[in-house]
Amino acid sequence: MIRGIDFFTIEVYGLMQSYNATIEECQLLVNKIESLKKYDLQVLNHQQDTGYIDIALYPKNGDKRKFIKNLKDDGLIE
Prior knowledge:
About 25% of the residues lie in helices and about 30% in strands. The radius of gyration is 13 Å and the shape is elongated. A 3-stranded antiparallel beta sheet has the order 1-3-2. By secondary structure, it is α+β, with helices and mostly antiparallel strands.
């Protein structure tokens, strides 16, 4: 049984506006993704001209149990 996860990283592709964006601009873009609004987000890396963005997901309000449930509900962990 998983007792706690501090953060989870994902790679997002397909945000066309991200191709020539800065990290800060990518942060603004990912903050608008409706399916990720249940997490605190931080853009870690952006591979310019590819559209790939590495994102760290953190639990909102430090609630690790809800964080794990959300990750499971979203199919990111089993």
